[in-house]
Amino acid sequence: MAQRVKRMKSRIAESFRPGIELSSQPDHALIDVITVPRNDVASPWRQLAKRLMWAFSLVIFVTFVVYFDREGYSEELTLIDAAYYSSVSLTTVGYGDIVPVTQQARLVNLVVITPARLAFLVLLVGATLSVLTDRARRTFQISRWRRTLRNHTVVIGYGTKGAGSVAALLADGISPAQIVVIDQDRAALANAEHHGLVTVFGSGTKNDVLKIAGVAHAEAVVVTPSTDDTAVLCTLAVRELAPSAKIVASVRESANRHLLLQSGADSVVTSAETAGRLLGLATVTPTVVEMMEDLLSPNEGFSVAERPVREYEVGSNPRHLVDIVLAVLRNGDLIRVDTAGASALKPGDRLLYIKHDTEDPSEILDDE
């Protein structure tokens, strides 16, 4: 079986190896691939008003500079003359009716008015400059993001399941900046960006896409593509790049569950059969389904959470605690609360319990 999986990995690596590795490209070449959400989005009218304000301020500044040095020009200048000279100079019209004649006036033109003229021209072509500066800003943003990205969560596929998993992560206090979404649907990526998530355009089956998403440094990877075969390919590619990352995958058919486990997934959720069981259960006991949905819905009523055992709880039976405990996590094993192994809590245990949305998150953080 291990040899079969190894041969499968080799074939997959060959079939999905791109002609040009995205991970080897410079940051400015990834602008159309990686999108880091912007903190502020100004309207075009506001940007135009800001440019006009700066241009008008520049004219006023040069006007006063020329007026204070009015004795160095070819004729005696009034304030209106200084404003006139400033406007024709900054716009590079230069009629030549007023010119600096003294050494001091020419020095002021060289040191002050010429740079101001260049700045004024930059403001006039602000649309072109805006595109250039935006690309430079995005390149710098991507470069900084790639350098600092560590211990994050990568979500492959931002459909219904992917969006739901992200909502659960955000409800558990994970920062949006620590979540990276990979998808080939531009509309889905735009929706993810709207929620403050970093997005990467591409297929989760390709190594170069996974590399620029920082999978090698990720703490966890959620695999939620639309088909089971894609999920297997994604899991194999992720496990090859990130041997220690926690991989949680979704599969539609339970018959394919073992393939994902053999490919390296730590946990597999069967979506279609789980939904089918809930539908069948809803026909008999709909209130139970409502409670299950409440437990699975983030930031609404009850939810299933995890916390460490407190010092004064060591040695206690988890069924006698104030919290409603469902299971005990001990050395990586899940022990149900109704079994003998969970009769007494030990140091280092973690509890799966039912948390209410009014519970203070700082209580759990303090225990960490």
Automatic annotation (TrEMBL):
<dbReference type="InterPro" id="IPR003148">
    <property type="entry name" value="RCK_N"/>
</dbReference>
<dbReference type="InterPro" id="IPR013099">
    <property type="entry name" value="K_chnl_dom"/>
</dbReference>
<dbReference type="InterPro" id="IPR050721">
    <property type="entry name" value="Trk_Ktr_HKT_K-transport"/>
</dbReference>
<dbReference type="GO" id="GO:0006813">
    <property type="term" value="P:potassium ion transport"/>
</dbReference>
<keyword id="KW-1133">Transmembrane helix</keyword>
<keyword id="KW-0812">Transmembrane</keyword>
<dbReference type="GO" id="GO:0005886">
    <property type="term" value="C:plasma membrane"/>
</dbReference>
<dbReference type="InterPro" id="IPR036291">
    <property type="entry name" value="NAD(P)-bd_dom_sf"/>
</dbReference>
<dbReference type="Pfam" id="PF07885">
    <property type="entry name" value="Ion_trans_2"/>
</dbReference>
<feature type="transmembrane region" description="Helical">
    <location>
        <begin position="52"/>
        <end position="68"/>
    </location>
</feature>
<feature type="transmembrane region" description="Helical">
    <location>
        <begin position="107"/>
        <end position="132"/>
    </location>
</feature>
<keyword id="KW-0472">Membrane</keyword>
<dbReference type="Pfam" id="PF02254">
    <property type="entry name" value="TrkA_N"/>
</dbReference>
<feature type="domain" description="RCK N-terminal">
    <location>
        <begin position="150"/>
        <end position="270"/>
    </location>
</feature>
<protein>
    <submittedName>
        <fullName>Ion channel protein</fullName>
    </submittedName>
</protein>
